[in-house]
Amino acid sequence: MSKIITDEKLIDELLNRSVVEILPSRKELKSLLMSGEKIRIYIGTDATGTSLHLGHATNYIILEKFRKLGHEVIFLIGDFTSRIGDPTDKLASRKQLTRVDVKKNIKTWLKQVEPIINFNDKKNPVKIKFNHDWLSKLTFEDVVNIASNFTVQQMLERDMFEKRIREKKPIYLHEFFYPLMQGYDSVAMDVDVEMCGNDQKFNALAGRTLLRKIKNKEKFVFITTLLENPVTKEKMMSKSLGTGVFLDETIENMFGKIMAQPDENIPQLFTDCTYIDLDEIENIKKQLIAKIINPRDIKIKLAFEITKIFHGEEKATKAQEHFEKVISKKELPDEIAEIKIVTGELLIDVLVKNKLATSKADARRKIDQDGIKVDNEIMRDWQVRLDKDYAGKILKAGKREFRRIKIV
Fold it and tell me: For residue 406, which phi and psi values (nearest 5 degrees)?
């Protein structure tokens, strides 16, 4: 059995770094953590995509800090709730997933977060749970009883529902079930704390209501910051939209995508996605504001620190060298993968087949935006066929993808 650590400095950082709000209060949760009592904390993630991103990593870093203090932590995979579809921030109903879709999506999740969560600690192991295990067993009578704790007015208070009503867009009945089911997770696991992003506050509070009414137990809601651009207020990362920096990126792509982040995102990415000391981050902020350092130099440090977490220091160093050589100096990388192309294949098909574009539409978009080159010549015709004249040439997609063409 693990020992509960009550180091006040560690607890203070845990309660203040990357945290928006703690309900009912930080003071009460700090008191509980300082008491030495072991508590149960969870965070749930819906299986709506195959890749997790840096926004998820923020929460998992905090979850691991709770585990290192000796508390019981639960890594919950929302394999049932993801089939309902969370309406949060959506002006239209989400596409409902099948059980097969969900299983495919979560196949590599644990591997993606292994760099930040120790799944091998025998003294205080992480509990991995799936909410299909209890939600799929609820009877209709159970669901009616759960629903009886809420009013329609409470559900309609959600921003996205109000917007849909104003815009005369449909609200499907099953979408009301989402906060009920996520809320019931807290009851089924009998938790003391639920961690969530600021966009999940409504759902987490539904769980607090259910836990109080069904088990007469209070639950803390630990709300973490969302990665948002401070100027545009747009999300930096989105699993459902496929934007941002994903944990299963190649080393070069992870480094490059962090370097592509706007300068204004630097301080929050340091705070939420690295282990750099807060005092050092505060100093970086001051230097950026005073314009006494080049944001690009600080961004290189940021990209290195994040890439190091997920790929190790040696590979992060190579990624930095690759970026400086290929992106900054516009030189060719030392190693270029070869692709085999049948004589006469359409460029658009080559891009999709070799995963340089996600679809033909994506390939056409990249070509139209001058994002595809062969030996530094911009390819503007998506209907061009690649023949023997292209043998040995370098196909470049975007800024970071290079392939040597072999015609067969």
Answer: -120, 120
Cα separation, 322 vs 215, whole angstroms: 56
Q: What is the mean pLDDT of residues 101-110?
A: 85
Half-sphere exposure of 408 (CA within 13 A, CB side): 7
Whether 237 maps to a domain, the answer reads no
Distance of CA 181 to the CA centre of its chain: 22
Final residue in a domain of this structure, among 207, 224, 241: 224
**Same domain (yes/no): 207, 256:** no
Distances (CA, A) of 347 to 124, 317, 338, 359: 53, 34, 15, 12
* Interhelix angle 278-290/295-311, nearest 10 degrees: 150
Cβ-based neighbour number of residue 66 at 10 Å: 21
- Residue 158 CA to residue 150 CA, distance in Å, equals 13
Q: What is the pTM of this model?
A: 0.79
Domain-terminating residue out of 328, 358, 389: 328
Which has more confidence, 324 or 192? 192
Domain span at residue 40 reads: 8-224
In this prediction, residue 92 carries a pLDDT of 44
Tell me: pLDDT of 96 over 70: no
CATH number at residue 364: 3.10.290.10
